[in-house]
């Protein structure tokens, strides 16, 4: 049961909303002025219905006050018919929805239901956020809290989302968390790894094919989009889609329609798209390998997952989670082993940490996890470069790089090491570092921004 606050100076409007809300099992408070409404705004209020035209303080001013006090509280604004500018102003000020007078009760009931659903979902996500654990995503660092906030914002919408981040950072977990906390949660979640699809069968796999469309097509087969109707499609490694499939995906994103391979009938599927990539799509667009229009269609809401090296404070919590998932919740981890894990940069991110914990559990048998139970590479200093030759580094980095992106992955790591070393030797001076590297300051700045590095002085 939810509590709604209705702020309107028309008794008939207040009566109608009270009847509608109480008829749905909710409670309602009413206030004839913004001042009285703000005084009645307790933490128990789950929804506000607010008229724009009020005696004394106007509704838009009251809306801004409400947003200051309760930024997560959904507010439905009532505005006079035809005052579109007021409606736009209300949405800009943070209103969840607006309805026009004369009030259509069916429209109002639908808006209230959506607002309360959003409130319930936001509260659930906030609870997990406070606990530092959402759908398998673990983290209490500021970077992960920002990820949780974005998930909370997008899961109550149907907006297309693109999740970016290095390999192993947990992009599929983000997609699953969005699906699990959305209105589509009871429908299918269809994960598709675009990089693993045979090039000649990508379109057939995604959109299906008709009988006889090609050799071996002995029957009509629906595609993965049809299988996920009503649910969510997760397109992993979306940067690896070939050009013909990019064109069909763009068309689908435009109007959710498609044709099966070998077919002529236009079909539709009601699915939410969450895409992910560890590649720089903007660079692919610039190189002519990726459609610019598709990039913008996918990039409606972007969520970037930080690499594990940038949120090492989450390592202890992640280790505890992996031990729990493996049925070893009470297993001890020595302080020395934890320090070893905290000193390592985890180029393989969460996936590499999970594998290291699983190995340590096996090798430690029934005792506590000690440093010697961890993979040998963790015994080296943070960054994992000490004791390894250049050849060994390249071999290891190649082994860790995702298929089809090894050049970028290995080159980026060499470049970052080079820039870090030049900046350290130059004591942070961009001018000295750029002279040492033989590149101009603008290029160095771009590389520093790309790798998250900072100079101590702009000299």
Structure in words:
With 459 residues, the protein is α/β, with parallel strands linked by helices. It has four domains: 3-124, Rossmann fold, CATH 3.40.50.2300; 132-304, P-loop containing nucleotide triphosphate hydrolases (Rossmann fold); 309-379, Helicase, Ruva Protein, domain 3 (Orthogonal Bundle), CATH 1.10.8; 405-451, Orthogonal Bundle (Arc Repressor Mutant, subunit A), CATH 1.10.10.60. It is built from 19 helices and 16 strands. The protein has helices spanning 11-23, 34-39, 59-69, 84-92, 105-131, 142-154, 171-180, 202-207, 224-227, 243-255, 281-286, 292-298, 315-325, 335-343, 349-364, 390-400, 406-425, 430-437, 441-451; strands at residues 3-7, 27-31, 47-51, 75-80, 97-101, 133-134, 137-138, 161-164, 189-193, 208-209, 221-222, 232-236, 257-258, 267-268, 272-277, 301-304. A five-stranded parallel β-sheet has the order 2-1-3-4-5, sandwiched between helices. A five-stranded parallel β-sheet has the order 9-12-15-8-16. Helix 5 runs antiparallel to helix 6, helix 16 packs across helix 17 (406-425) and helix 17 packs across helix 18. The longest helix has 27 residues, at 105-131. It is globular and about 80 Å long.
